[in-house]
Amino acid sequence: MPNTVPSKKTARDVILVTTAMLTFISFWRASAIVLCDLASTAYYIGGIAEQAIGRAAPWFILAVMLFSYAVRALYIESCSMFVRGGVYRVVKEAMGGTLAKISVSALMFDYVLTGPISAVAAGQYLVGLLNTILPHARVHWHFSPNLFAVLFALAVTIYFWWENVKGIEESSDKAMKIMQVTTLMAVIAIVWCGLTLWKRGFHWPSLAPVFNKDSLGWLLPFKDKIRPLGLLGLGIAFGHSLLAMSGEESLAQVYREMEAPKLKNLEKTGFVIFIYSMLLTTLVSFFAVMIIPDAVRMSQYSDNLLSGLTMYLVGPSSLKILFQAFVVWVGFMILSGAVNTSIVGANGVLNRMGEDHVLPDWFRVPHPRFGTSYRLLNLTVACQLLTILLCRGDIYILGEAYAFGVIWSFVFKALAVLVLRYKDKTHREWKVPGNVMIGNLEIPLGLAAIFLVLFSTALINLATKKVATVSGIIFTVVFFVIFEISERINHRKVYLKGLSADGHIDRVNLNELDLLTPEGCGCTKPRKIVVAVRDPNNLSHMKRVLEEIDPDTTDVIVMTSKVAKGLHLEGGLNEPSPEEEQLFTQVISVAEKVGHTVTPLLVPSNDPFYAMARVAYDLGAQELVVGKSGKFIAEIQMEKLAVAWGAVRPPEGRPIRIRILNSGEYKEDIV
């Protein structure tokens, strides 16, 4: 950038730094993303649980949904400690890298199966509707349910893969729309089912589970010694219903995308998804058992329970078929949305592994246009597509296998948060309730109880779920070996230096702008503040600005200079230097922690003060904020900025507010 005043038509080479991690979403959008996974289980958990434990399934689904609020508390506490508070980060901080890689391997099994089971269930609902409607239209076609479900699941998975390649903002928008229509469907279904039970009368389902050889697994030889309402019997039934709260890890993955105030929004999100998923999932299970005849329910509607429920409501047949079509349409969207949620979650976990150099940096190279980690998305979706082909449309097999990743990721998470209570004594903004103080010693009874319930359920599931145990262990071992080998290769090839405080580097794209304009940077809000940064360890002034602003009316542009010596730049414009990567990583980290969007700029210049003024002028900023210089006192720093501002503005000029911020020091002027 030359030290002259160019005209508006003069091209100026400025680098716009882009990344997928600088767009923040409201707690309603975050709730929608998580609910697309959690609430979607209402469409298939009732049938899966009833095949395992009989008509008592709704009671145990209710127990699981109530317990889910306790599990959700684990995630709130871990996120209060770490913005990127997923299983990997928390387990690694508490118990080291080996157990962290094992926990992520189990969690990946969860994510790889979440998409297929949801997409296949959506296909089963759709083909059931088609096979019901076509004969009435005198169309003598009958689709094979499993084949149709597989083809449909493949198409939906590929569609949401592309949506995620484009970025989370578009994906969260779709999730929001899905949950809006799901809410409408749920209200109609609950009211209509309530009216049906009021007119026909009802009997509550039995509390005693009924086990079969599949649900007992390796405990089958001890069948006569297992009492359905004994402690072991209740544990078995609880374990077979655990899928009702799958998707909790997505809460930690979307936390880093939440807007400010982050923790308050996380608490709101946790409450919203608890109430919503508990009412929808639990009530659907109870209504299905109390309204649909037993023989019909298990023979025809075990894979599409809500469709069967619509056909046994009171009212004219034409109206029931119309509502069935609406239920299937909503199911198509919410179950397909669960595919999106699984991709988002898996991508977040694998990104964290890449940040820690467990996966090769090649995987995290941003998409040249969208800035997303598209190679990790490709890996996740490839595994899901293979799973869909292997299951051949059988939801029960998917559900049984799915349980392994769900429960063991919860176990590792609970144990890690418990260990951190003693290992990390720093202040927490939020804790799992149920803490007893004995002198200076805190006893986390609530945390310990959650861990014991999860761990005992996991052990019972190992003995009772053959498919889950065998397939889950194989998958976990394979992924762990891949992570272990990859990490060792990386450590031999790469000299790890310049890492941020929490040990990772965010990959960014550098996009050259010929002319610096607000439109080119995506800055459309009426107020604009330019924040100049240089030292990754001195971003307190940036944090203060983000905490002060109104994000609805203010754009924050964070700029740094790529200093030239004479006519030559230090490094090229094609990719950031290690020092610039470290700086942008810390900029992203601060923005994530506060929850406000920033626009990073890299400006080539041989005069950093002139570059700051030029950027502020070209973008029409009302304010320029800098940190305290290590070379100049504040008065000299302010004088240089004032001179630079006088050099870039035309004679008629306009004033700008300049602030120099530092902990314990403040200087302001309007020039």
Could you write a compact summary of the structure shown?
The chain has 671 residues and is α/β, with parallel strands linked by helices. Helices cover 60% and strands 9% of the residues. Helix 20 (540-548) packs parallel to helix 21 (578-594).
Q: What would you say this structure looks like, in words?
A:
It is a single chain. By secondary structure, the chain is an alpha/beta fold. The chain has 23 helices and eleven strands. Helix 2 crosses helix 16 (395-423), helix 10 packs across helix 14 and helix 22 crosses helix 23. The chain is globular, with a radius of gyration of 28 Å. 51% of the residues are buried. The model is unreliable at 1-12 and 495-502 (pLDDT under 50).
For the termini, the CA-CA separation is 22 Å
Rg: 28 Å
Can you tell me the overall shape?
globular
Q: Strand pairing plus helix content: what structural class?
A: alpha/beta
Strand content: 5-15%
Largest sheet: 9 strands, mixed
Tell me the total number of β-strands: 11
Helix content: 55-70%
Mean pLDDT: 81
Number of helices: 23
List the uncertain runs.
1-12, 495-502
Task: For the structure shown, list the relevant keywords.
disordered N terminus, two-stranded antiparallel sheet, 23 helices, single chain
Draw up the topology in text.
Elements: E1 14-18, H1 27-38, H2 45-53, H3 57-81, H4 87-95, H5 97-136, H6 145-166, H7 168-200, H8 213-216, H9 231-240, H10 249-255, H11 262-291, H12 294-300, H13 305-311, H14 317-355, H15 374-391, H16 395-423, E2 435-438, E3 441-444, H17 445-464, H18 466-493, E4 509-513, H19 518-521, E5 527-532, H20 540-548, E6 554-565, E7 568-569, H21 578-594, E8 599-605, H22 608-618, E9 623-627, H23 634-648, E10 657-662, E11 665-670
